[in-house]
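Troubleshooting log. The previous structure file for this entry was overwritten by mistake, so regenerating from the original sequence record. Sequence copied from the archived sheet and checked twice against the printout by T.R.
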Amino acid sequence: MSDTQQIEQRLERILLKVTKPGRYVGGEYNSVVKDWSAVPFRAALAFPDVYDIGMSNLGLMILYDIYNQQPDMLAERVFSPWVDMEEAMRRDSVPLYSLESKHPIRDFDLLGISLPYEQLFTNALNLLDLSGMPVRTADRDETYPLVIAGGHACYNPEPMAAFIDAFVIGEGEEIILDIARTLMRTKGQPRHEQLRQLAKIEGLYVPALYEVSYHPDGTVQAVKPTVPEAPAKVLKRIVPILPPPFTGFLVPNVDTVHNRAPIEIMRGCTRGCRFCHAGMVTRPVRERRVEEVVAAVEEIVKNTGFEEIGLLSLSSSDYTGVKELVKAIGERWGAQGLSISLPSLRIESMSADLMDALRDTRRGGFTLAPEAATEKMRDIINKYVPDIQVLETAHEIYKRGWRTIKLYFMIGHPSETLEDVQAIIDLSKAVLHEGRKIHGNKATVNVGVSTFIPKPHTPFQWVSVDTLDQIHAKQRLLKDQVRGNGLHLRWNNPKDTLFEAFLARGDRRLSAVIEYAWKHGAKFDAWQDQFRFELWQEAMSVCGLSMDFYTHRARSVDEVFPWDHIDAAVKKKFLIEDYLMSQRGETRVDCRNQCFACGILPKFSQTRMNTPAEAWECPPIVPRHLRGKDLGEVIPLGTTG
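Regenerated output below.
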């Protein structure tokens, strides 16, 4: 009996005893099943969380489609089993398997793991272990699948360096085929030789080919390559022109966290919010044509049962054709009940007629994300908007029929005081007052407050994180006053903040911490009922490291970061300048209106070889002082959906 047959036989018993067995069976409409024996290269694509979350990941679906379009390649999916399923699999000796063919992950040539956020690190180790593979790359030879990882958490790959053979830095649509071809060419060669060949691929970081030295105070002295194939700096990979949108969405077996079909209408952002990691690492801006997006919606409606389309980007109202696109979709499918969600709409570039167009698609509240409640703090974070404009925006939203406005803030920004936190309370009440003018007691304001975490490759990568005492004091103030009829507050666990903070800016020594925590039961760290902060404190102590060193310590501008050898194509000099500007309360305008020489375009002159110049030019945007004047309306800040 083959391994696949044994797995299927044992699953017949196991699936009767676990929650949501649909997570583990595959067979979804639009899934791709190829003849395993007829395809020379096989990739398992993993999202290290449960099916319900992983199936909503657009990046995973795009890579799945690209591999399966190749006649000599196949891709199959794998997700982390929930705790009850894992217990049953370990008890009955069922290795982790792919959903499409039920082959053990151990049989694939490549295991690609998506790491969009740090809370998935222990799940990645658990996934390797469930596959019957050593978790450390040093213990895996060429008989095991190559393990690669990609995603935003990989822009600082060092905490996971001991476990991942190679990291994709940047965008994956092209590099995944380069990796596959290299592995096919080097099949049978020793793993070390395979890694040396992979290191030649632009945008691929192979940590085993680098060594790290430290100063006596624990800061990084240098990260240097040990072989000539490994570059001193790994430049992120970028796709000059976005390929046609993915439309062959798999129809999931169980409800997912985002029950919609997403289309990325624009990649990159030029706003320059100083806390925003995604806005810095996804530069430059590239857009898809309106006709291309509309054609993609047509395919999705025809081939799936989704009733909502998510038009995704970091700043959707900066998309040049946003009004034309919303109007076209509304006219074509509005009568069929197709809904649109358009996140990340901003005060600087959204108009009243766009609000009117979105009004017909609303399902819930309208979200505003001022991030800070005083003009002083919004200057510091480079997200300036006058207080009066926030209130006028709220009034316009309520006037168009929305009864609930969601406000998103962050506490813990650099230089923040309790007076700035009090301003969150005052602004939330003022927004509610605008709603009461129109809807009376039916108006509500939902206030979400998270705690700021400095991220690599941003102007705030040098700053410290609030202590637990500081976070608790600010949250107490909010809890005491953001309550009552019409006001609802949500906040995050301060321990979650510290956990994410030390991993986000960690170095290679944290691999031992992650491994210790996982061996002692850490997994599903993004789930509140599974997260064990005390275990992580124990792991840090056992490994001789201090959590405070990674979280509450402000960095000097000349410190070498663990990720300085990872080149996100935005110059460190530019980030330092922006950091110093924040300390003076100075702002930058949208860099579509004025170039500040961040470094992004010169870095990719070689990538643009056969790319039309217009594909790299920022789409035209109305200058800040003219925006909205011809409309006679407020231009609101925030997101809908």
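Residues 261-509+545-580 form a domain with the pyruvate-formate lyase- activating enzyme fold (CATH 3.80.30.20). Archived copy saved in two places this time.
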